[in-house]
Design a protein that fits this description.
Layout (H helix, E strand, L loop, with lengths): L8 E5 L8 H11 L3 E4 L1 E2 L2 E2 L6 H14 L3 E9 L5 H17 L4 E5 L9 H22 L2 E5 L7 H8 L7 E6 H6 L4 H8 L3 E6 L1 E3 L8 E3 L8 H11 L4 E4 L12 H20 L1
Parallel strand pairs: 1-2, 1-12, 2-5, 5-6, 6-7, 7-8, 8-9, 9-12
Antiparallel strand pairs: 3-4, 10-11
Helix pairs in contact: 3-4, 5-7, 7-8, 8-9
Length: about 280
């Protein structure tokens, strides 16, 4: 199966398959028609910046040989409340890892704000490490994507943080479920993020608007208007990666990757064809 995204391409996050070896991940990507991989887990373990040299080389060799680019390196970095110098140091370490794997993006989280903390003061503090590291990322051709997640689940919150960072290498990673959960339409999201939109996570779920969590479901079975997302992305001129993020690592009760990954690939192929027409 060949996935035509009208300029975008489809990847999946290794978060979907915590029980798989990296070799099995590569086999599945080929089998299901994915064109890239987003790395959160390697052989079921979360990636740290201290990954051994030999392991880094193994990952690079295996994925390069398979013709599967690393579309993003996902970190656990949360900017809110972090020491700015320490946060900048951690981001730099992941930029090194992304450069070794020719990845165009490092994902970070905004995190949760402290109770009673002024949002403006918090955002100003969070912007400092991003402003410090952003020019280095730009020189290396790597983006730093702040995901719509946690206290930053709305695109409006992410856009407010980005307005404090001039460097265009620092942008947004749009997790489409969380903005939907917060009541933002796809058109609102793309208007808010504009050309700072660097990457997209594809998933579906259902629940009440504003609820802290939604039930994760197979694509097309929930409340996320994925067709509308794709239309908004086309109107925005987005031509980056679309990553299926099936959160099996954190939600073991959801469907197995052997079910979810081909289902998402088939659904996205259909939706992308409809969006293109």
């Amino acid at each position: 199966m060949r996935i035509d995204a009208g300029g975008s391409r489809l990847a999946f996050s290794t978060l979907a398959c915590p029980g798989w070896s990296l070799d099995r991940v590569v086999e599945a990507a080929r089998q299901y028609g994915y064109q890239g991989l987003e790395l959160r887990l390697i052989d079921g373990e979360t990636i740290g910046p201290d990954l051994a040299v030999a392991e880094r080389a193994r990952v690079r060799s295996l994925l390069r040989g398979a013709g599967l680019p690393v579309v993003a390196v996902d970190t656990s970095i949360r900017l809110a409340g972090a020491d700015p110098d320490q946060a900048a140091s951690e981001i730099r370490a992941f930029l090194d890892l992304a450069a070794e794997w020719d990845s165009p993006l490092v994902r970070v989280f905004g995190g949760e704000l402290s109770p009673g903390q002024s949002p403006d003061a918090a955002f100003d503090a969070m912007a400092r490490p991003l402003a410090a590291v952003g020019p280095e990322a730009e020189r290396r051709g790597i983006g730093i994507g702040i995901e719509t997640h946690d206290a930053f689940s709305s695109a409006r919150a992410v856009a407010s943080l980005l307005s404090r960072v001039d460097c265009r290498a620092v942008g947004a990673l749009w997790d489409v479920l969380h903005t939907c959960r917060m009541g933002e339409s796809p058109e609102e999201v793309t208007q808010l993020l504009g050309d700072r939109l660097l990457h997209v996570h594809v998933k579906d779920g259902r629940g009440e608007t504003g609820a802290s969590q939604w039930e994760l479901v197979l694509l097309g079975e929930g409340d996320v208007p994925m067709a509308g997302v794709l239309r908004a992305l086309r109107a925005n001129g987005y031509r980056g990666w679309l990553t299926v993020e099936w959160e099996k690592k954190w939600h073991p009760e959801i469907a197995e990757p052997e079910v979810a990954l081909p289902q998402h690939a088939e659904a996205m192929t259909r939706l992308l064809a409809e969006a293109a027409s």
